[in-house]
Amino acid sequence: MARHVCTNCGATVVDEEFCPTCGSWIDPLTTERARKSDEFEEFDLEDRPIPTLTRTGDPLICPSCGATNPPNNRHCEECGARLRQGPLPAAPRPAVQATAGVRAVVALSGLLGVVVLAALLINLFSDDDPATTTTVTGDVTTTSNGAVPVPGAIEILEAICTPAGLEGAFGCSNLIDGTDDEFQINWNELPANAQTFEIYLEFAQPMVVQRIDWTNIADLDRFRRNYRAKGLRIEAEGNPVPHPQELQDEPGPAPHQFNFAAIRANWVRITVTSAYPAEVVNDFEPFDELAISEITIIGYPALDTSAPNETTTTAPSG
User: Fold this and answer.
1) Chain-centre distance of CA 141, in angstroms?
2) Residue 201 belongs to what domain range?
3) Do both 82 and 156 map to the same domain?
4) For residue 141, how many other CB atoms are within 10 A of its CB?
């Protein structure tokens, strides 16, 4: 039986080529006893006899060479490989953990960035003419790319009533002068089977008509003692289908407003087809006349389709 002292850790090694404590290879020719005696002879690993296991417990199988080792060995006696490993150290926890709130803020920040980028791209590629200028003249807002209409009172060149109505202070022109002066017509003198009359309103240029404001006289007693327009039939150039309308029996000064549409119209014709009857007020007899205070047409100039980018002539608001 040969005993050796491991030159690495100092452990006693008996008939083993590798130290079972530290795994170092034991060279018998370099030990002190080998230098003093000739009891050792060199031999190859292939010729070395397998040592007898003298320790208790289950033997350890070397994962490197497959050799059988005593249960207490930490290194293989054949190849020196490590037989047993201690527990691996656990990885340290991260210094900063992402909570649910932090993740939500990060997600919202990313979404906001995407929205801002998309808006910038849309604005970049959709703005064909960033140097567009805007000017406002009368009832039309004009840009370098065209005109954006602003509805207002249409200028009326002339008002023609048929029959003409009362002469003097109650003429047809009172309907468009913007004052409290009235137009009156003797309703009882019209033929009983055709009590109607027409109001023809001519414009300064082709207009887009949107609405008509009809204003009755404001004095309540005089309003009730006169006949008041009730049924209307409205026509306009470019709108060949007559539009019927029934007015409310209410005095001014607030106008009765109703919609009426026409495109590129040079005129509007209103026919009064029926009337509310005149009444006795405070024992005063009713009048024979039908009275109207004002008619206003609301719209804007029709754009010139042959030159869409040119500014049209604008009628001032009344």
Assistant:
1) 26
2) 152-301
3) no
4) 16
